[in-house]
Design brief:
With about 350 residues, this protein is α+β, with helices and mostly antiparallel strands. It has two domains: about 180 residues, 3-Layer(bba) Sandwich (FAD/NAD(P)-binding domain); about 140 residues, 2-Layer Sandwich (D-Amino Acid Oxidase, Chain A, domain 2), CATH 3.30.9.10. Strands 5, 6, 7, 14, 15, 16, 17, 18 and 19 form a nine-stranded mixed beta sheet that branches. The protein has a six-stranded mixed beta sheet with strand order 9-2-1-13-21-20, covered by helices on one side. Helix 1 packs parallel to helix 6. The radius of gyration is 21 Å and the shape is elongated.
Length: about 350
């Protein structure tokens, strides 16, 4: 009899886990209150930088190590599941204005202390201009992290939904889940039994997961045909550090904010002004950019900013991906599948 898995939550973690469960021949049912595009999830808002080292400012070495492994898995996953999605592995650049050089130096020291200096290269103004000629010429140097990348978050969510459908997964989008318990999921006043249930709801699981907090993230998407960036660029600043992530068709994602709140209302004027001013400071070409969209998402995090896999008989909860959902999803999903395999063997013994 086919082993059945019920997964609640179709952000990047839930979809990745669903794909890996399908690959093992298990019968997968995926539930989410949002649409197939994932537009109600924080994954949809994510810039989807695959940056295990640039994120060391806000996370632990263990997350960086997991992220480095996961980054190597992404190309394999794209091939294995035939995902039609933009992905590149061209590294990341970090810069600061001369007046904020101390911030860049502090960051370089922090990275070196925690993971060593081999993950980054100190680059001169000349090299920086060759790599990213559209950056403001006042940047005198920078850091180049070679082993980093990016993926199109929305393209990935769509491609994964298509791949799940092609592999025979049962997809229940726009479905309100009434309750989740070991071995069962209740919706539309019906109780559906499974051999295993995965809870991947992120902040939606706050009532059922202790110590979970919400971290608000705000982004701006714009069309900037006068800018040409080849890879994600981060600007170090003591008050408003930002990242700018290039996408296809001259589109860019600008982000920075991490605000401790459960407020998921529209982006604030102050956040928007600071991000746009910082983007213009990175490249003057953003002056004539057109704003396409502003978005807000609530990212789930534990006090230590590390993800957790909470296991009991018949139920596994995955949460606390914080800013690292796309980065860590491959290794987290593989660990979940390994735990399920161990449970299966224990049940068979």
């Amino acid at each position: 009899m086919t082993f059945s898995i019920g997964i609640v939550g179709a952000g990047i973690t839930g979809r990745m886990a669903a794909l890996m469960c399908c690959a093992r021949g298990w019968q997968v049912s995926l539930f989410d209150r949002g649409d197939a595009a994932g537009s109600s999830s924080c994954s949809y808002v994510s810039p989807a930088m695959l940056a295990p080292y640039c994120e060391l400012d806000v996370t632990e070495k263990s997350v960086s190590e997991m992220g480095a492994r996961a980054l190597q898995r992404w190309p394999e996953i794209i091939r294995e599941f035939s995902l039609d999605v933009f992905f590149q592995h061209a590294g990341s650049i970090v810069v600061a204005y001369p007046c904020d050089q101390a911030e860049l130096d502090r960051f370089a020291r922090s990275v070196k202390l925690r993971v060593g200096e081999n993950v980054m290269q100190q680059i001169s103004c000349e090299t920086l201009n060759k790599m990213e000629p559209d950056l403001d010429p006042r940047f005198q140097n920078g850091l180049y992290f070679t082993n980093e990348g990016q993926i199109d978050s929305r393209g990935a969510l769509k491609a994964m939904a298509d791949a799940l459908k092609a592999r025979g997964a049962a997809l229940y989008f726009e479905t309100d889940i009434e309750s989740i318990h070991p071995y069962e999921i209740t919706f539309n006043n019906k109780v559906i039994k499974f051999d295993m249930v995965l809870d991947c709801r992120g902040w939606g699981a706050a009532a059922d997961v202790n110590d979970l907090r919400a971290v608000r993230g705000e982004i701006i998407r714009c069309h900037a045909p006068d800018v040409k960036l080849n890879r994600p660029v981060r600007l170090m600043h003591p008050r408003w550090p930002i990242y700018i992530v290039p996408h296809a068709n001259d589109q860019y994602v600008i982000g920075a904010s991490s605000i401790e709140t459960v407020d998921d209302g529209a982006i604030t004027l102050r956040s928007a002004a600071e991000m746009l001013n910082a983007a213009f400071a990175v490249s003057a070409g953003f002056a004539e950019a057109r704003i396409i969209e502003t978005s807000v998402g609530l990212r789930p995090a534990f006090p230590d900013n590390e993800p957790k896999i909470i296991t009991e008989n018949g139920l596994i909860r995955v949460n606390g991906m914080y800013r690292h959902g796309f980065l860590l999803a491959p290794v987290i999903a593989e660990e979940v599948c390994a735990r399920i395999e161990n449970m299966k063997m224990s049940m068979a013994a």
